[in-house]
């Protein structure tokens, strides 16, 4: 399960809703093992450009739309970048490709591993 928290989120009384607060609540109230990860320009490496900021907004919108449109039968997805468009990819297919890359690498099939990673990796 994934919980997404917007930067600057506040409750009805104006108190900040932080990822650490949610992490503590989920651990304490639900008994789940939790981890908090704060993503941002550090993940991409370097100072964010205008493209980075627009990309974050587009991908965030796509992630929220995926959540709003989801039903209990909707397969899990990953929001990704294709060209300059935010797109949804099936999570399990992405996981399988990652496993296939690992297998290709361990078997020394480096050309196959590069192809599995996609054009942007070549």
Automatic annotation (TrEMBL):
Keyword check for Repressor: no
Catalytic activity as recorded in UniProt: beta-D-fructose 6-phosphate + ATP = beta-D-fructose 1,6-bisphosphate + ADP + H(+)
Domain Phosphofructokinase: 2-66
UniProt GO cellular component terms: 6-phosphofructokinase complex; membrane
UniProt entry keywords in alphabetical sequence: Kinase, Magnesium, Metal-binding, Transferase
InterPro entries xrefs: Phosphofructokinase_CS, Phosphofructokinase_dom, PKF_sf
A biological process from GO: fructose 1,6-bisphosphate metabolic process
Pfam families, per the entry: PFK
Keyword set includes Phosphoprotein: no
Entry GO MF terms: 6-phosphofructokinase activity; AMP binding; ATP binding; fructose-6-phosphate binding; identical protein binding; metal ion binding; monosaccharide binding
Protein name (record): Phosphofructokinase, muscle b
Species this chain originates from: Iconisemion striatum
Lineage per the UniProt record: Eukaryota, Metazoa, Chordata, Craniata, Vertebrata
